[in-house]
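Technical annex, item 7. During the second reporting period the consortium partners agreed on a shared format for inverse folding records so that results from different sites could be compared directly. Each record opens with the tokenized structure and is followed by the designed sequence. A conforming record, contributed by the partner at site C, is shown below for reference.
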């Protein structure tokens, strides 16, 4: 028997996946210009569309004029790997990991690139490593925002302006969603399928002048796979930053990205998309204060992600059960919310503590976040009541 009545209002859309994420409001396939489809990406029109995508990214993010942008293979993963394989090894490296993806880059640094000297700064899910211990005489690789843990760096104040090393930042769930001080970063990577609600397969890499200088003055000691090469004949492959691509791109993905970028422009650029995220996050924070059952996975409110809303169940009754029962309860909650057409794809990341992960990025309507959260409480109470009844 359910503990209380269902909430009166459902979200308009049940799509709260952290990636691929919901398409921008009002999206339909007819929004995509088809003129470049079925043509060579080297032909003038498709190449111009790639160049336009690069230009719109630069302008909507309000990047410094001397930062350059390219579209690369392999989504954000490919962009991060490109930075690591092409740029690291010139000096020592510090790697930061506090959830799945940062730890993946650490694994590559240790096992594949075998970097030395290498310092790894790790923390458990919910926490950040001690940022004061990072050595900025080294290159530093880190995520801005951890979607698997719901933990982000609080700001850029821990990154010195006079750093000797490069700041290489996986910002895939932060670009267009958080206020990032670009001058603090030398390499920025992201993918279309996060804050823009785009399709997968391609990543974006952004280089500062300091990163360009590294490319032009340093050759890695290891063979660099073609897909990860920023170099061409020992210098920066400038064509990449003018609309050429390393391998054949999906022009359908590019057209979809252009549609998303035009939507961003209609909001006034990233300031408009950040405002949507902030509104959703305010709803989330208000709900956290009132819910008797849930708490944020992030241990410090100052490091709580505004996009990856990761929560665990803090109810004493729930915590008294063994882990298998707790996992089953959360799965039953998800199934109930899906059956009600309220939310899909909101399970915690597979390696994260048992809980839920809700995407609150720019393409999600803030009112949908507001309407979803009472349903989360309702679903938990419903499943909890059923388990208590079965145990009686």
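Designed sequence (site C submission):
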């Amino acid at each position: 028997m359910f503990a209380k009545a269902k909430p009166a209002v459902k979200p308009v859309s049940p799509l709260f996946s952290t990636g691929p994420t919901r398409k921008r409001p009002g999206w339909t396939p007819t929004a995509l210009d088809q003129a470049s489809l079925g043509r060579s990406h080297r032909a003038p029109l498709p190449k111009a569309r790639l160049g336009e995508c690069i230009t719109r990214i630069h302008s909507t993010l309000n990047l410094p004029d001397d930062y350059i942008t390219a579209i690369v293979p392999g989504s954000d993963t490919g962009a991060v790997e490109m930075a690591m394989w092409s740029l690291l090894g010139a000096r020592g490296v510090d790697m930061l990991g506090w959830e799945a993806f940062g730890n993946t880059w650490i694994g590559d640094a240790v096992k594949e690139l075998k970097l030395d000297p290498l310092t790894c700064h790790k923390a458990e899910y919910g926490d950040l490593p001690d940022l004061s211990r990072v050595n900025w005489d080294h290159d530093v690789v880190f995520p801005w925002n951890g979607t698997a843990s719901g933990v982000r760096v609080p700001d850029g104040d821990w990154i010195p302006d006079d750093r000797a090393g490069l700041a290489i930042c996986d910002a895939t769930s932060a670009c267009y969603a958080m206020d990032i001080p670009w001058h603090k970063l030398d390499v920025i990577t992201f993918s279309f399928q996060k804050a823009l609600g785009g399709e997968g397969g391609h990543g974006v890499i952004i280089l500062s002048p300091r990163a360009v200088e590294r490319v032009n003055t340093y050759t890695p000691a290891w063979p660099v796979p073609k897909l990860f090469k920023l170099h061409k004949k020992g210098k920066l492959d400038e064509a990449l930053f003018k609309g050429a691509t390393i391998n054949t791109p999906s022009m359908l993905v590019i057209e979809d990205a252009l549609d998303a970028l035009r939507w961003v422009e209609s909001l006034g650029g990233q300031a408009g998309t950040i405002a949507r995220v902030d509104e959703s996050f305010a709803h989330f924070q208000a709900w956290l204060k009132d819910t008797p059952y849930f708490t944020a996975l992030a241990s410090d409110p100052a490091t709580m992600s505004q996009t990856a809303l990761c929560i665990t169940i803090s109810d004493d009754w729930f915590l008294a059960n063994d882990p298998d029962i707790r996992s089953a309860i959360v799965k039953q909650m998800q199934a109930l919310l899906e059956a009600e057409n309220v939310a899909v794809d909101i399970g915690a990341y597979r390696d994260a503590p048992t809980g839920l992960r809700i995407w609150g990025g720019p393409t999600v309507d803030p009112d949908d976040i507001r309407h979803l959260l009472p349903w989360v409480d309702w679903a938990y109470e419903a499943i909890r009541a059923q388990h208590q009844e079965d145990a009686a």
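The chain is about 35% helix and 15% strand. The mean pLDDT is 95. All partners now use this format for quarterly exchanges.
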